[in-house]
Design goal:
single chain, 480 residues, alpha/beta, Aminopeptidase, Glucose Oxidase, domain 1, 9-stranded mixed β-sheet, 8-stranded mixed β-sheet, 13 helices, elongated
Amino acid sequence: MKRTVLLLGCLIALGAASSQAAAQTQSITRSSELMQVYHSISSHDLLAYAAELSDEKYGGRLSGSPEYMAVAEWVASRLKEWGLEPYGDDGTFFQMFDNPHSEVFDSGALSVRMEQEGEELTIGYSFPEDYFPGSNSDAGTVTGEVVYVGYGITAPELGYDDYAGLDIQGKIVVIDSGVPFQGEDDEFVKWVPYSYHQLKLDNARRHGAAGLLYNSKIANPNTSFNEELVYCHIDQHVTDHLFFGTGRDHTITASIRRHPDSRSCNVIGLIRGSDPSLQDEVILVGGHLDGVGDLGQVIPGALDNASGCADMLAAARALAASPVKPKRSIMFIFIGGEECGLLGSYHYCANPRFPLEKTVVYFNLDMVGHGTGLSVGGGETYPGIARHFEAVNSDLLHRAFRMSASRSSVGRPRSDSVIFNRAGFRTMSFGTSGRVPGIRTSYHHPDDTIGTLTPEIMEDVAKLMFLGLLDLANDTGLEF
């Protein structure tokens, strides 16, 4: 109560100044026609977009797969319907890139045979409670002795080798994720390359491993394919079983087909700016369209990241219908290959559709579909940009709203925003905060369904984007 009294006092004392600041921030007139478009953004439509993107017919949207290309076509058809300009390759909505992938036919099998007090005991495990099949495993069955190799790292320049003194030829190795060093300093940077899943799998195969158990139960296509290496991801309790008792043998079976020559795409649509002197400047809005696929059961990827893409679709539709046209161009990028190693964002940054110096900012949306509050990551670093979104929330949405500073990541990149940031783009993100009681969200799991989403917060994210992006695009005195 004390805080409320003080806050009210400040509002009374600063009322005139606040009104002035709001007037300066608001760069467009919010006419009744404009607000009609604003109010047309509905939670019903947002949930319908997310439901379509999460539909089983798209097979979990694994980048590089025919199902991913089908969902990319659906997104492009919506952008075309709403009048966005195709801005991919050769006059299409698609910016293509190489993206090998593996087709998983079923969840495979996992079992361990051990001797305990002279008796043989076999334990069978279940998907998805105990393990996930390796998204890029080779096909086949491997049975063998299990050997723990720590982080699975060989780093001679750092004087470190988890395989030193171990004979793992034809055996199954158990490895942990991460590296044996923590922190954010120069010493940690030396270890970062060894944290990549691809390197760990490649290293195991070089040492002769026939099978691999990754002590990190998660659906993950961001791994490498090695011929004759069968692997899966296991829960910690499975790891505990492996080293209980003696005479341990493990069996892994995978039913998979590799597609080494497949391709994927970013889906790119443009709302061209109306001002001849500003239309060559662009505001980028992106989020990854792909998911982690089908591992014997489709992983819908509703929160990650059908939610962010649905928010983008709703904002794009509203901006295209707006009676007030943006002076700067606004481009929406539905990114492929994020789950496979950030392939789409790497490709765009190497082949940008607008020059870096003409790009005002890149906004990222990832898992923006559950919660009670709104956030703009990077807002403290770029207040001249963030103020437009802060004003929309203050004037219309009245959600809990927070901003944070833009932070550079020195570790293994895990988001498209990191790739854009490292390429020199001003990078910000739209996000949500808070939890909705009674709803449990899931990550890279079959339970990531539309039932975990909060349509009302998605509606407000789209509304925040619509008016905030329009204000930003029309800010002729923009300062960073």
